[in-house]
Amino acid sequence: MSLYGRMEVAVETNIPAEKLHDLLSSSSLPQLSCMSPAKLQAVHLLKGEWGKSGSTICWNYTFEGAPKITKEVIEDIDNTKLSTTFKVIEGHLMEAYKSFKFIHQAAPKGEGGVVHWKLIYEKENENIPAPTAFLDYLVDFTKDMNAYLTQGQT
User: SUPFAM superfamilies under this entry (predicted)?
Assistant: First the structure.
């Protein structure tokens, strides 16, 4: 059994792809906590600049009913492909995985967009399950973001 894995999911939204990318890759990141406060309580810049590769950010969030803190480095922001790659460097995911990255890519679809989430990871051992619950968390978070940004629209 391989310790390396990859999981992907696509979530349709009513939000244009460019706006999705901006929200998930720039100085707009701290605003995400008001879009899904039950899931995400805060996003802090620890090092570097918002929206710049190499910057380190800290996420304070609730996962599976418990408060969590994760630190990540923004590895890459591709404004042409509307994608951002985050590498987890500290936090609960590093207890079970030797490496963990998540990539979001926004794509236009009709008047809205689609967020493609991709998780790339290496488990500590064969007994560690795939991070399905975390992928589900990202799907639910994306739906919360969509609901928040489209409320009041008809």
Answer: Bet v1-like
Who's near 140: CB < 8 A, 6+ residues apart? 39
Give the HSE-up count for residue 129: Cα atoms under 13 Å, Cβ half-sphere. 5
Strand 40-47 vs strand 4-13: parallel, antiparallel, or unpaired? unpaired
- C-beta of residue 70 within 8 angstroms of C-beta of residue 91: yes
CA distance 63 to 67: 6
Residue 12 three-state SS: strand
Q: Alpha-carbon distance 50 to 53, whole Å? A: 9
- Its pTM stands at 0.92
Dump pLDDT digits (tens) for 80-108: 999 999 999 999 999 999 999 999 999 99
List C-alpha distances in Å: 37 to 54, 60, 87, 141, 144: 26, 10, 23, 10, 9
Q: Which of 108, 120, 116 shows the shortest CA–CA distance to 138?
A: 116
Residue 129 is classified by DSSP as P
Phi, psi angle pair for 37, to nearest 5°: -65, -25
Q: Where are the alpha helices (DSSP H) in the chain?
A: 17-23, 32-35, 132-150
